[in-house]
Give the backbone structure.
Amino acid sequence: MWYLVHKWTSLVCTLFLLLLCLTGLPLIFSDEINRMNGGTLQFGMPGVGSSSNAPGLLPLDIMMAKALAVRAGEVPLFMAFDNDQPSMTVTTGPTPDAPGSDMTTQILDRSTGKLLSKEDKGGIMDFLLKLHTDLFLGLPGMLFLGAMGLLFTAALASGVVLYAPFMRKLAFGTLRTSRSTRLKWLDYHNLLGIVALAWMTVVGVTGVINTLEKPINTLWQRNELAAMTREYAGKDALPPSRYGSLDKAMAAARKALPGNNPQFIGFPGGNFSSKHHYAVFFQGDTPLTERLLTPALVDAETGAFTTARSMPWYNKALSLSRPLHFGDYGGLPLKILWAVLDLFTIVVLATGLYLWLGKRRASSAAHVREVETGGIVVPAG
Amino acid sequence: MTLRRRSRQSLGSIFAAPLAIAMLSIFALVAALTGDGWRDALSWVGLAVPILTIAWALRPA
């Protein structure tokens, strides 16, 4: 029974998982690769985070005006900050609810006001990321890959169950490399699978959670955000011409959540705010809570603080799933370990496929016997 | 190899090493999430264990 679960869950997801592992491998190092391509950026005040309110950093209104001057006729959608450098991004689009494909993101230096670069769309890394996230199919593609991830976790669980009878008479770490090719790959499959199990499970499950990003965000907008802005429910959307000062809004938000720094501002009408608010998303003040955001809503016209509320559990789960999936939270050594474990996973997937292809015509009973005897009986079929 | 002649192992002994490796991995993954500096170093050590296990299994007999 578990043999059949392992066989079918694996068969359905293996090719997609191989694609995910192969595209994911360069994506682990996307920061490093992008830095290599873009060269090192020169900042006016290196080491001063644009998310701080350090003296010398330019007002947000000036930064926004500079960004909009480059994109005539567009409206602001997002403004995002960096904790380590004065670089920041401004995203604009033709309308407040413009889809991602119509958005333009500029990277600016908040200490000099200079445009550093435009976010590269259509580069090789962007291509790999799209392929990895949604196969270029948008939300259905994302959810489909999420389903593949679920099958992968089922394959991992059933694989662990099969590991027990297989190893009954074998010592941990056994690799019988000199008998037959099939036995060799069977041992590799089992050993690599069991040592990388925890990592594969964590990256698999957090990957599945990441595919739910859009539904999670919609849920937050419908429940939490709607409750936070109930007084505004009947009002017409605020037109961009009446947007007030960002610096005034930021000051009001900082006063409400002192000691914390903003990660980004969602503008009215977008997926991260109401139709009337600047939503300033603050990071927590410890390394762990840094990723758990608290939105402070400020009336975009008057600059008056409306309310702030920490994100619900489903958004928190999403926030913590990102680093645990990307492996970008513990320096370059962690990324290298991530890459090696990704290679292990590729070998597990490839050997699994090989083991199935090699004895496809053998009966299930024969396969079960192979598992139960630790691979000693290799039946003819 | 004499491994084939081992008597049947209990579930406990089959899963002792895998469980230890899994716990170390989880611990490592969480450690780096809770801070930088030595917590990162701890995660490198913990997550190197599965990889070193393979190196150990590949040692010449």
Remarks:
- The radius of gyration of chain A is 25 Å.
